[in-house]
């Protein structure tokens, strides 16, 4: 698999075993012209999951992206994550911009106590100083500030 080093969203990825001779010939020329513009990666063996496609269920390649939270002191994983799915049959690229989608991710486990790496305190918004503005900016902070004044 070759990827452009400045690429994003799955664009420009060439998966050798799935590529045509014409694609590989063109890619060879591009790499010879600018070898630092490409990165090689072994294809990852993605799992498959039953996926509803219209009125039928079929296997599609997926990857799971866990969510990590960093509070500045500790990093912990939250239960669940984002499962991305390659919707075209046989596709390995899961990016939504390349025809991919997402699936619900469920964690079916019960823990009586938080995992050791989970935060032990409840997260609450910081109180605003009188006449001050919220520390964070953006629509969510403005909305929170409006709710606190009401």
Strand content: 25-35%
Strand order of the largest sheet: 3-4-5-6
Discrete helix count: 2
How many extended strands? 6
Report how far the terminal alpha carbons are from each other. Answer: 56 Å
One letter per element, helices H and strands E, the order comes to EHEEEEEH
What is the average of the pLDDT values?
75
Reported for the largest beta sheet, the result is: 4 strands, antiparallel
Please outline what is shown here.
The protein is built from 2 helices and 6 strands, in the order βαβββββα. It has helices spanning 21-33, 139-149; strands spanning 2-4, 38-40, 47-53, 56-70, 75-86, 100-103.
Question: What labels would you give this structure?
Answer:
150 residues, alpha+beta, 4-stranded antiparallel beta sheet, two-stranded antiparallel ribbon, 2 helices, 6 strands
Explain this structure.
The protein has two helices and six strands; from the N terminus they run E-H-E-E-E-E-E-H. With 150 residues, it is α+β, with helices and mostly antiparallel strands. The longest helix has 13 residues, at 21-33. Strand 4 and strand 5 form a beta hairpin. Helix content is 16%, strand content 29%. Residues 120-125 and 132-150 have low confidence and may be disordered.
Question: What topology does this entry show?
Answer:
Blueprint lengths: L1 E3 L16 H13 L4 E3 L6 E7 L2 E15 L4 E12 L13 E4 L35 H11 L1
Antiparallel strand pairs: 1-2, 3-4, 4-5, 5-6
């Amino acid at each position: 698999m070759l990827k452009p080093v400045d690429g994003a969203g799955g664009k420009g990825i060439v998966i050798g075993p799935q590529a045509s001779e014409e694609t590989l010939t063109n890619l060879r020329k591009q790499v010879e012209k600018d070898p630092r513009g490409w990165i090689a990666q072994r294809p990852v063996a993605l799992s498959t999951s039953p996926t509803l496609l219209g009125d039928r269920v079929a296997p599609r390649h997926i990857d799971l992206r866990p969510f990590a939270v960093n509070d500045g002191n500790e990093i912990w994983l939250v239960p669940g994550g984002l499962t991305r799915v390659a919707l075209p049959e046989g596709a390995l690229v899961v990016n939504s911009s390349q025809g991919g989608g997402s699936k619900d991710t469920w964690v079916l486990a019960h823990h009586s106590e938080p995992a050791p790496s989970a935060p032990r305190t409840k997260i609450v918004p910081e109180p605003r100083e009188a006449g001050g503005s919220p520390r964070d900016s953006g629509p969510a902070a403005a909305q929170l500030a409006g709710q606190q004044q009401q």
